[in-house]
Design a protein that fits this description.
GO terms for molecular function: aldose 1-epimerase activity; carbohydrate binding. By secondary structure, this protein is mainly beta. Helices cover 7% and strands 34% of the residues. The strands form eight sheets. The protein has a nine-stranded antiparallel sheet, with no helix packed on it.
């Protein structure tokens, strides 16, 4: 019965979109990608920005549906089946492209880079040269600065019913970073309801790279009031404590007997408001977890909504996972469906190398040299 409900849901969406599940072309045009009408209107994401075309692309595997914009390589919506077979949009986002272009939009759904997370004072030294980046987070650089990848129009390289490959070429000196960097990201909806994200990059000069996706999730559905009831598991024995500007101190602290111990399924809200010094600094969770994992793609975290029964597994090749509990969300306007997003109504779990690694040699290196390829993969899998 559940499989029948899922199939019926997909059929309704594709019928609305004017796309046949049997006759959908292998090479899609953006005009055909309209199945995201449940939450957004594709025409509201079409624009010409400095001569570059922005459109919305819809992927489906026959069960799940993802809508992705080439503006910031953003995940705009992601519909997955709940315990009753009904499709639920589990990714927060804005109603149109204009809202994503507003100042301080929060990186919703974007690929952030060149360096995801924070770099202290926006400075690092590489091969004897000091580099100064754009400051956009108090005294620090966050997610690539004011001119990061989240605000770029990515070129569409390849698109099929279930996958989309995008490229952005970042020139030498872009946002203060050295080297011409050619970056690609490929999204694929897999047969087991995974949103598979593969990142690649090459450079002509030594640089630092740390790419990740900044999706905001609520497995009870975008617009639901809270994520504090979600059960979270993170396979990590340690995390990196931060200073008052949320830069890692360099220590790797053990999670045991702290509010950061998610090695067993625990409600996000169970200990979030305890008088822990680290939680006070981040106004909740905004910390990098040191993953307990072997080489290759490994299961590192699981989240479950008690309302919808949706379970999300996170598999990654990365050594770190930034857990952010929506502590700075406040009356977010222009959301999908005319909704407003409020305090702790979403969480982020960003697979990554550690924050401020260019300044902390004990952390895994984020240096990319000419002749080498940056390549990493993360899967958000739903069941």
């Amino acid at each position: 019965m559940e499989n029948n409900k899922i199939s019926m849901s997909i059929a309704v969406i594709l019928a609305i979109a004017g796309v046949s599940a049997c006759n959908a072309p292998q090479e899609q045009s953006s005009d055909a990608n309209a199945s995201s009408v449940l939450t957004v209107v594709p025409a509201d994401f079409e624009a010409d920005i400095n001569g570059d075309s922005v459109k919305l692309y819809t992927l489906t595997n026959g069960t799940a549906i993802a809508a992705i914009s080439n503006y910031g390589a953003r995940v705009i919506s992601l519909h997955v089946p709940d315990k009753n077979g009904n499709l639920v949009d589990v990714v927060l986002g804005y109603k149109d492209l204009a809202a994503y272009r507003q100042p301080g939009e929060g990186f919703y759904g974007a690929v952030v880079g060149r360096y995801g997370n924070r770099i202290a004072k926006g400075q690092f030294e590489l091969e004897g040269q000091q580099y100064q980046l754009e400051l956009n987070d108090g005294p620090n650089t966050l997610h690539g600065g004011t001119n990061g990848f989240f605000g770029k129009v990515w070129e569409v390289q390849h698109v099929t019913d279930s996958s989309l490959a995008l490229q952005y070429v970042s020139p030498d000196g872009d946002a203060g970073y050295p080297g011409k960097l050619e970056a690609t990201v490929k999204y694929t909806l897999t047969s087991d309801n995974g949103l598979d994200i593969t990142y690649r990059a090459t450079t002509d000069k030594a640089t630092v790279v740390n790419l990740t996706n900044h999706a905001y999730f609520n497995l009870s559905g975008e617009g639901d009031s809270t994520i504090l009831d979600h059960l979270l598991t993170i396979r990590a024995d340690g995390y990196t404590p931060v200073d008052e500007t949320l830069i890692p101190t360099g220590e790797i602290a053990q999670v045991e007997n702290t509010p950061f111990d998610f090695r067993q399924p625990t409600a996000i809200g169970a200990r979030i408001d305890t008088a822990d010094a680290q939680l006070l600094l981040g106004k909740g969770y905004d910390h990098n977890f040191v993953l307990k994992k072997d080489a290759g793609l490994q299961l590192v975290a699981t989240v479950e909504s008690p309302k919808t029964g949706i379970v999300m597994d996170i598999l990654t090749e990365e050594p770190g996972l930034q857990f952010y509990s929506g502590n700075f969300m406040d009356n977010v306007q222009h959301a999908k469906g005319g909704k407003t997003y409020n305090y702790r109504s979403a969480f982020c779990l960003e697979t990554q190398h550690f924050p401020d690694a260019p300044n902390q040699p004990e952390f895994p290196s984020t240096i990319l040299d000419p002749g080498s390829e940056y390549k990493t993969r993360t899967v958000y899998r739903f069941r």
